[in-house]
Specification:
The chain is of the alpha/beta class. It has four helices and ten strands, in the order H-E-H-E-E-E-H-E-E-H-E-E-E-E. It folds into two domains: about 30 residues, no CATH class; about 140 residues, Sortase (Sortase, Chain: A, Beta Barrel), CATH 2.40.260.10.
Amino acid sequence: MNLSSKDNYLYWAEKAGIALVAVSAFIVFLTFYPVFREEAKYQLLPKHQDAAVLTAEEAKQNAPDDKRAANGVIYPVDEDFGIVIPKIAANARVIPDVDWQDSRVYQRALAEGVAQAKGTSYPGEPGNVFIFSHSGVDFYEANRYNALFYLINKLVPGDEIYLFYKKQKFVYRVSEKKTVAPESVEYLEGSPEKQTLTLMTCWPAGTTLKRLIVIAEQVK
């Protein structure tokens, strides 16, 4: 290889390296953009933890008497099965009976909302309602919901979570938050004598290293 050919080779090798770095950076940006966006929204936008969370029927009947209505009203995106967490502006559809052990199944579900683990309780029943967003580093739509649940790390004991099921509203109050190993599955089951809710997401955001668990107890 003469000098001119060598210089030409090095030139194109450098260009290819720069292009590869740029493409890699763009992929990382697309993967984590939903997380950055949700964090920015949480830090910059007004908080809504004092807003009234109402069904459409409640809004017709009770909104004028609801003291929280002065702070705004939040309507669930799905009254048949939905979740609202005012503090972190989470408002999503819940996909029922999702097999948490089959990635093909739960990834399809997470493209539409967050998922209720198959075999766990439904709102209003004794036992534990287990809802997860478990995408890790995956395609954009699933990671969008993972980003939404990423913000559950902002929840503290006393914060309220609302579930809607078959047009009924159920109110839960956070009691505990912890980080656990991925293989920890004991949180799927709750006490048959209590009505509890467990939220789970991958942690840190965009990885599958740990699981962030938030436990809440039904109060209404």
